[in-house]
Design brief:
heterodimer; A: 172 residues; 2 domains; 77% helix; B: 107 residues; mainly alpha; Arc Repressor Mutant, subunit A; 4 helices; 9% strand
């Protein structure tokens, strides 16, 4: 049954990929399955690893087929280029300020057309609350993506080493 | 494709092929053995990496007339071996720096 499910999941890959690697992958899966230790937890870990690997592998195979090398294979390089750019924070602040200014402008127009200011402030506070929650959620999602991309932090170690080298070369 | 560092699974796949040509299951077991059971590759991950390494010319398939289609053998190309050596040098440098810094801290 597991083999049937495995073959079925292989169909999620692009056709050319299946033709090239399908039989080989099935064969390796069969051999690996024959060597799973009898413990239940080992079996669960094995099937979870295999089926999750197939799902993510098929997704990236499709993305790679569509977009080429622009899509990095998830387990090829440590993704040190995926750093959260400081410029993004600045951009988010600018967008946030623009939204606040727009709301303030809308408030003044609303007051000019006869709405009472007391009814406008609660809605402004609720909009602000929704924005804070939205931005926090976005920050958590972005952190999750960066974490799953295995941001290594190695670039920092290299930066430290280049500083050490420059200090040494200056003879300090 | 000439940027580094490589992830550990890909590095271990290349190391496995550096010793001798291997087929898929043999790579899987060798990676597990080299990492002392810490890195367990799924077939999806392994063949994703092999496909990419083939496409970039780091590894190649050995043409064996009598080999069944579901058991093909891979080996490192000179380009793959050169890039693996660069990665090993990078790691050697890092471990040297780490050792010096840790020793400096302890002294």
């Amino acid at each position: 049954m597991a083999l049937t499910l495995y073959r079925w999941l292989l169909r999620l890959y692009p056709e050319s990929y299946c033709e090239e690697f399908g039989e080989e992958m099935t064969s390796v899966f069969r051999e690996a399955r024959n060597e799973i230790p009898p413990a239940l937890i080992a079996k669960i870990n094995f099937y979870q690893r295999e089926f999750c690997g197939l799902l993510s592998g098929s997704l990236f195979a499709h993305l790679h087929r569509l977009f080429g090398p622009a899509i990095p294979f998830p387990r090829f390089y440590m993704q040190r280029q995926f750093r959260f750019p400081r410029f993004t924070v600045l951009l988010m602040l600018v967008i946030f300020a623009a939204v606040i200014l727009t709301i303030a402008k809308a408030m003044s127009v609303s007051v000019a057309y006869g709405a009472t200011p007391g009814t406008v402030w609660p809605s402004l506070i609720s909009v602000f609350g929704v924005m804070v929650v939205g931005m926090s959620t976005a920050a958590v999602v972005i952190w999750g993506i960066l974490h799953s991309l295995r941001r290594s932090g190695i670039h920092r170690l290299e930066n430290v080493q280049s500083r050490i080298d420059s200090v040494k070369s200056n003879g300090i | 494709m000439e940027t580094f560092p490589l992830t550990e699974p890909v590095f271990l796949v290349l190391l496995s092929l550096a010793e001798q040509p291997r087929h898929g299951y043999s790579i899987l077991k060798d990676v597990e053995s080299m990492s002392r059971g810490r890195v367990l590759l799924s077939t999806g991950t392994l063949y994703g990496a092999l496909q990419r390494l083939l496409a970039e010319g780091w590894i190649e398939r050995i043409q064996e007339d009598d080999a069944p289609r579901d058991r093909r053998t891979y080996r490192l190309t000179p380009r793959g071996r050169r890039n693996l050596q660069i990665e090993i040098d990078r790691m050697r440098h890092l471990t040297k720096v780490a050792a010096l810094r840790v020793a400096g801290k302890e002294a």
